[in-house]
Amino acid sequence: MSPGQAQNIPVSPEGLYEHNGGDGVQHHEQTGRRKSGTTAAQSDDKSDNKQSSISELIKFLFPFFVSLNTKGLNLAFGAFLYGYKDIQVDSSVSYLSVSWIGSIYASVLLLLFPLVKWMFDQLKPKKDKHRGYVLVVGALCITIRTAFLIASASVSSYEGLIIMHGCVVGVMDSVLYGLAVIYLDANQRKRPLMWTGFIRLGASIGGVVHTAILNGCLPTIGFPWGIRICAILGVATMLPTIAFLPPLEPVYAEKDLSWSWSRLLIFEDIVGEKEFEDGTKPKNSGPSFVLALFGMLCLFGGLYYAFHFIVLYGVHSAHKTPAESMRLLIEMCACHGAGSIVASLLKGYVEDQMSVLTFAVLCTSQALFTWTGANDHAGLIMFVCFYGFYSAIVETLHLGCMFTYANSYPDADQTERMRYRTSFLFVAMGVGALAGAPATSMLIQMGGKVLMFVLADAMCATALLVAAFCLFLALVLMSRKSGEDEDD
């Protein structure tokens, strides 16, 4: 049969069966099964990918909401400080006394991550009960912080507020924030820049939400109920999502480190044993580490000043209403969110992370200097926008320290050395935050009834300027090779 005749064979099943003796039907059925199998497989793949994305998102909800309720509470503390100082405690209580609440809370939140990491490492050998222990510890922390935050709404003494809000809530929030970072699972570590960017964005959203809640409750149901609603928000968002916490897997072994992870471990050069391409090591790694420590101390001593005191400044110095002053804090936190997004993008494209962060510290210092001359509304808006934006980039230093400390290396001795030295950075950050607010409060009330915010502005701006200089000098020293001669 010629090819032309073959093309005229009927294409109906009957014709194919008559011509091929039944083979055509079998071939047709097999082809149909292959096509349907391929379609079903593609459908299953799409379904699996969709379920995987949903599962990944659900597991991410806990760290996001923890950041919203812990770091966000710290950014919104200016609204709490106004309520504590002007509404809840006795009017004779000084700014210095009330400022200890926020300084202790921020200090504990920054300082305790090495202790939290050690605590959960002790639970790891008990693999069969490990997840249960973690869920119990997390749920207990959420319950305790909620109870004490609600109780702080009824306390009229600043000592009680220091213990409840500053110490107890601070410790619980530090454990929860450390738990959220430690338990980022393998899927989230595949795209770390995106996930950590969302975690930082959660803090900014939390600052906006907490401030908005207090601002809305202040003229209606009162400041204490605003605190209670903030506490209920925490338990309503964190407690359900902790159930989706993934099991802990081996943490970031060096052979598995992706390019993205290297952009987060920004302190490895200063803390660790950096080597250049030719095998030589930095000449002045010791002095650079000391300079970085002093820089972090000064940096976090002045970083949160504007967030904690902008509302009091608006009410008592800029002659604004409490609602207008809280809107300044909301705008600052919103710009902090924009800065968090930009910081995540920069980490994906900029090679020298520490140099960019040092420049951001310098810009934050300059923004604080402009506060001293921002006497009108437009000037204040410009200040809160620029300061919120730059401070978000600077605050990534804390999360970078957390990832550097949590990272594990094939060499156990190197891991131990890295964690030992990184722990000093946490101490520097915590001590700086602890001393910053009381020191600025003393300067604010030096003028008696006339509050001297300009002195506090200048001091914190200078501290940030010194921090930028120390970090820059540390980077310069780290770039010198051990084989270089000073005479050369």
From TrEMBL:
One of its GO terms (cellular component) is membrane. The chain crosses the membrane at residues 60-84, 96-120, 132-155, 161-184, 193-213, 225-245, 289-316, 328-349, 356-374, 380-403, 424-444, 450-477. Keywords: Membrane, Transmembrane, Transmembrane helix. The keyword S-adenosyl-L-methionine does not apply. Residues 1-10 have a biased composition (Polar residues). Belongs to the major facilitator superfamily. Monocarboxylate porter (TC 2.A.1.13) family. This is Major facilitator superfamily domain-containing protein. It comes from Talaromyces proteolyticus.
